[in-house]
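Write out this protein's structure.
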Amino acid sequence: MTNNLHLDTRWQLLVDDRFIESAQGISQRMNAPVQYPEPVLIADRPWEAAGISGYNTVMREADGRFRMWYGAAMKTGLPQEGAIRLCYAESPDGVHWEKPELGLVPFRGSRANNIVAPPDERQSQQGATVYRDEQAPADERYKLWTKFRPTDAECAAGVLPGLYAMHSPDGIRWSLYSGQPNPPAQACDTQNMFFHDDRIGAYVGYTRVASTQHVDEAVAGGRGRYRCIGRMTSPDFQRWSETEIVLQADETDLNIPLPEPQVGVLPSLDFYTSCAMPYPGAQDVYLMFPSVYYHWGEKEAPATMDVQLLTSRDGIRWQRASGRQPFLRHGWAGSGTSGMLFANPWLVEAGSEWWLYYAGTSRRHAAPGGEKSTGGIFRAAIRRDGFVSVDAGYGGGAFTTPPLEFIGHTLEVNADGSAAGWLKVEILDGEGHPVPGYTLADADPVFGNGIRHPVTWKGRRTLAELAGHPVRIRFVMRDMKLYAFRIGNGPISSV
């Protein structure tokens, strides 16, 4: 058994130092998305009187439809005891959305609405993530996981609130699984993420944990318990493992410089949501977009949240990108994105981009319930594979991978050289010597900006003779951003 990295034919993202054994003149950079300032969905129905929830789901189906499941908030009190409903919207383009009249769930005596769950208007459902499960039978093709509160009468009869699982054949008509809550006694006041992880052959769930792994250390430092991100697994979406904390505020977070003395025993920040997911089409890449909650003063001031980017190779050990700078930033003061931001699953494919939808509000977390606020659901766009890049500046740079073994026969890169940047690729053997025919002198330069640049050597594209043998890849570039590469099974003729 060798220590060589074994590559399949999927994309290899440069989100960490996995592929950098040695380097000169390069740096890694988080690339922020374009955040469109106008919301794509706002509260404009009677059952949305208290606004759009922070916890929503958007996906795109194979037929091109954009679909959204969003939380609609309302004032409590009869005829509804709960305050959140799960509603449904559709769009042909991901920008212009319609709220269809579905006729499923009553609201104040009428079914003329787009509410899909819970089935009883006196119940409440918050923090649902909807997932299309290709592993499941047709009548369970869609699953969701949500914080669920039964009616007052059901609670009095012994029905427990908690984390509930539901299924649907179409994402519209939902049924509860048996054995609720699922799992029992689990903190769930957040958007509860889950998916089937093909890498390990199990369902993975991420929820919020109201404690730390280092409680004694927190207490010794005068801190109270604080919100963390927990992970659990299940073979069948019914039986779940114990929760393992995978992200919590660390020493750097707990000691950020503050503009005023800290108030109380709570830390200055903790993590409110996770929005953790596997990255589509790549080998061993997971992304997390947690809302970071800042609260150090009186009444939890500033009581604001923005969104960071974290990356992982296994979904357990996470790395914070770009010095912990925001990935999704606040908008202008007073706008609908000036108070709290919550990234929503999933990454939605839109040509050469991914779209990430997120909820925004001008409201702050500790604001009085009656405070007027603006907000809705917004859209951010980022280049495919473009979350983190390896950059070479004006003077040029290079990096070399550790030994690799691959099964494909053509190399492509996702790279942006703008007007005058260029990139060349040299293949080295296991001892670091240039392989004849694949030297820097043989390499054809890659120019321009594209997500699927073919790499060639004197017009020749095939790497078939090197498949299964340990090699290193040396990327030499100037004024270039390199996001990802793939050794796949594309056509071997020069392009």
